[in-house]
Amino acid sequence: MSRRALFQRSPTTASPTGPRPGPPEPSFWTATPESLSAALACGLDGLSSAEAARRLGAYGANVDAAARTEGALRAVLRRFMEPLSLILLAAALVSIVTGDWIGGVIIAAILTLSVGLDTVQEGHALRAAEALRRSVALKAEVRRDGGFVTVPVDAVVPGDIIRVRAGDIVPADALIIEASAFTAAEAALTGEPYPVEKRPGSVTAASPAEASNALFRGAVAQTGEAVALVAATGATTVFGAAAASLAEAADSSPFQNDLRAFGLVVARLTMALVIAVLALRVTFGRPVLDSLLFAVALAVGLTPELLPMITTVTLARGALRMAKRKVIVKRLAAIHDLGAMTILCTDKTGTLTSAEIALARSLDAAGGEDSRPARLAAIAADLGGDRGSLDAALVRAEPGAAAGWRLASRRAFDYAKRTGSILAEGPEGAILIVKGAPEAVLAACASRRADGQVRPFSPAEREQALGRVQALAEAGLRSIAIASRVWTGPVGAVEPGDEADLVFEGFCAFADPPKATAAAAIARLAQAGVHVKILSGDDPVVVRRLAGLVGLKAEVTLSGPEVAALTDEALAVRVREVEAFGRLTPDQKVRVVRALKANGAVVGFLGDGINDAPGLRQADIGLSVEGATGVAQAAADMILLAPDLAVVADGVTEGRRTFANILKYVRMGASSNFGNMLSMPRPRWRCRSCRCCPPRSCSTT
Fold first, then answer.
1. Are 522 and 405 in contact, with CB atoms under 8 Å apart?
2. DSSP label at 609?
3. If one looks up domain 358-511 in CATH, what number appears?
4. Which of 288, 454, 533, 606 is the most exposed, fewest CB within 10 Å of its CB?
5. Domain ranges within the chain, ordered by starting residue
6. Where does residue 476 rank: exposed (0-12), middle (13-18), buried (19+ CB within 10 A)?
7. Of 149, 138, 164, 161, whose CA–CA distance to 225 is shortest?
8. Pair type for strands 531-535 and 343-346
9. Which class does domain 3-65+136-242 fall in?
């Protein structure tokens, strides 16, 4: 895909009237709203309904590229074209031709029933997955005909002016025109669990992850409100390529490859048997036609005619057992593939972690554990917070902190100063509480609290405090600083100048904690011979810390730039010893999966974000969870309704149990069929009537 096409699709049809919108610059976030609107042939006051309808026809609906679907007839024909199915069809035909109508009809009926059951079972699973995907109907707020109206997300077009508020899902890639205390969670896109500040302005960033003035489709608004100009929709968004990968034909699964290989072995053995028996009998003077029929009859006896039926029924029963464990199996063969899995690649946010920010530590000015900073921060969050993820974590950690306190005044978080404050009245009198970025808060502090006493804050101590922030970051924790000041004078509105001569109280450090069951599930998978590797878009330091918490040895991590610098051959060597990968792009996740497969591993991939879709598609077995993005669910082979790694461990056991049952039939059927073949009586020639063979070979003379 060209750089130009990445951000704007060419119109599928010529616009009937009016100027055709031109494509924006490739990195649209480097443009100004005025230049971008000129490139899109629109204004900054929104579109008319007629113009929006015209653009919808020209650019198409704002939807993901649809996965390649298969009609019922094609699905049936594909199953009949498998080598084993072709052998059974040939066996049924030969049986009918040779006069064994009952045997031929039975073989054909068994094969037809097997194919039908397989097709129907997968159809039910696909419909269940589609119903799950459509369970939430998304809307978007756009400016049409001079006012904001609500429209379906798929009706948003390039040139629209959208308004996004806290809790909304960003419907398209857009350049911010106005923003008020706006933050967005881009975990589904980048793997970063913390909200990102977004505001208008010019940036020169080459990466979307660094574009602070742009909104990207699939992100979730956390706080505030933003108005933005839509630059790209559907498959032309920055992460649209992830959805577009679903339109490509998927590789055959390991189970399909194994079954096809077994069918080819049976076919070769059957052909060799027919040729050998035919040649041997003709050499001894037997009639060619009778010898051919006898050889074919032997071949039919060797064919495992019940294998397709046994396979389908066994997998279907396995799917039912998985459904009871809240797992939707979209592809029956995926049950076997899950059992054959040797490496599980998993995303971090939402799969190994709870995807819910939690307060990890509350530290005083000297770096010791102290609940006072968390208590003050919780008062500020409860009385005057913006209800973002960090404020919610503070309130959960100190649920009763605000009891007895009253909000007197509030100054909303200033993204330029990177601080926010409240004036609260309570048991300690009137107190100004300030929280925000450590650098900004520390710069406003003239003293610090130590051992309950307020003491001067020296430059050396200030540097030590900043060093603790860096140490916490290296441990995978995100920090905010807390400061306070006793309010003197009449209680009134808080002004920016009031945030001075503060007392530094300490830090609150946050983390995205691992799920309680993650470590035990990883241990179960390890006992089953499945190695877990973390593939994340988050910082490698954070990924390494998480790996240690869930029981993985991640002494060596590999970052996205390091992966990009390696050739495919070198990467195939490095992935053998690396357990954790950070700052990976979707394409780099695909490269890691391919490298693992090149080493002979059966690779599973567990993810829930848009950036996980290519990896889900490339893996031998793709696993997603309920609540994942529609793109991830469409790319997956199984959907876990209970997002727990323990379910994956149960699935591995179920897959191996299912395969063992199929293998039992193969062994039993092969031995019995060979026995039947060897015990088949030779034909009894009736020479007195047909005169077709030498007298010495006739059993009736």
1. no
2. S
3. 3.40.1110.10
4. 288
5. 3-65+136-242, 327-355+516-655, 358-511
6. buried
7. 164
8. parallel
9. mainly beta
User: Which of 70, 7, 71, 68 has the alpha carbon at shortest distance from 246?
Assistant: 68
Residues 6+ apart with CB under 8 A from 540: 557, 558, 559, 580, 581, 582, 583
Q: What is the pLDDT of residues 64-111, one digit of tens each?
A: 655 555 667 777 777 787 766 777 787 778 777 767 788 778 878 878
Q: Is the distance from CB of 486 to CB of 429 less than 8 angstroms?
A: yes
Q: Is 467 exposed, middle or buried (0-12, 13-18, 19+ CB in 10 A)?
A: exposed
- The residues with which 175 forms a beta bridge, in sequence order, are 214, 229
Q: Which CATH number fits domain 327-355+516-655: 3.40.50.1000, 2.40.50.1020, 1.20.1250.20, 3.30.420.240?
A: 3.40.50.1000
Q: Quick check: 420 pLDDT over 70?
A: yes
At residue 562, does pLDDT exceed 70?
A: yes
How many CB atoms sit inside 10 A of residue 475's CB? 15
Are the C-beta atoms of 583 and 537 separated by less than 8 Å?
yes
Residue 526 half-sphere exposure toward CB, CA atoms < 13 A: 13
Helix (H, G, I), strand (E, B) or coil at 340: helix
Q: Which of 246-250, 418-422, 473-477, 624-628 has the weakest average pLDDT?
A: 246-250
Tokens 């919610």 found at = 392
d(CA 317, CA 311): 10
What number of helices (H) and strands (E) belong to the chain? 25, 23
Tokens of 441: 């808060």
Catalytic residue among 173, 347, 538, 637: 347
Contact 204, 258 (CB under 8 A): no
Residue 607: partners with Cβ closer than 8 Å, 6 or more residues away:
346, 347, 351, 613, 615, 616, 623, 624, 628, 632
Report d(CA 528, CA 525) in Å as an integer.
Answer: 5
- Residue scoring higher pLDDT (237 or 20): 237
In this predicted structure, which of 90-94, 172-176, 294-298 has the lowest mean pLDDT? 294-298
Listed range (89-98, 187-196, 363-372, 566-575) with the worst mean pLDDT = 187-196
Phi-psi region of 359 (alpha: psi -120 to 50; beta: other; left: phi over 0): beta
How far is the C-alpha of 416 from the C-alpha of 397, rounded, in Å?
28
Neighbouring residues of 601: CB distance < 8 A, sequence distance ≥ 6: 342, 343
CA–CA dist 46, 160 (Å, integer): 6
Average of per-residue pLDDT across 551-563: 88
- Tell me if residue 538 is catalytic: no
Inter-CA distances, 570 with 70, 455, 581, 596, Å: 37, 56, 15, 12
56, 156 contact by CB (below 8 A): no
**Which 8-state DSSP code applies to residue 66?**
P
Q: Which pTM does this prediction carry? A: 0.66
- Residue 157 · residue 52 · CB < 8 Å: yes
pLDDT tens per residue across span 648-701: 888 888 888 888 888 887 777 767 666 655 555 555 544 444 444 444 444 443
Residues 6+ apart with CB under 8 A from 130: none
Q: Which residues contact 415 (CB under 8 A, 6 or more apart)?
A: 181, 197, 199
